[in-house]
Design goal:
It is built from 4 helices and no strands. It is mainly α. The longest helix has 21 residues, at 54-74. The radius of gyration is 13 Å and the shape is globular.
């Protein structure tokens, strides 16, 4: 998957703090839910985040926000949990 292509296509829909690592987590989850083998992972992720089905697209965008929150909450630069 090419993070730069995904960000160029749907970056406005993703949280402003989203980075390549977080995008990879989201992409892995999207690809894992595919019913068949995905030949173009970048295109598949973009299509999932642009899906006309608002429920499907919305669930991935909510998951993106969850990943961003988890990442922000998870660790400080020293590896300690933030509370």
């Amino acid at each position: 998957m090419q993070p730069a292509d995904v960000f160029a296509a749907v970056g406005r829909s993703l949280p402003s703090t989203f980075d390549d690592e977080q995008l990879q987590i989201l992409a892995d989850e999207i690809l894992a839910r595919s019913a068949s083998r995905v030949l173009d992972p970048t295109g598949y992720v973009i299509r999932a985040l642009r899906d006309r089905d608002l429920v499907s697209r919305g669930s991935w965008l909510i998951r993106a926000e969850d990943i961003a929150r988890e990442h922000a909450f998870d660790c400080t630069p020293t590896g300690q949990r933030r509370f």
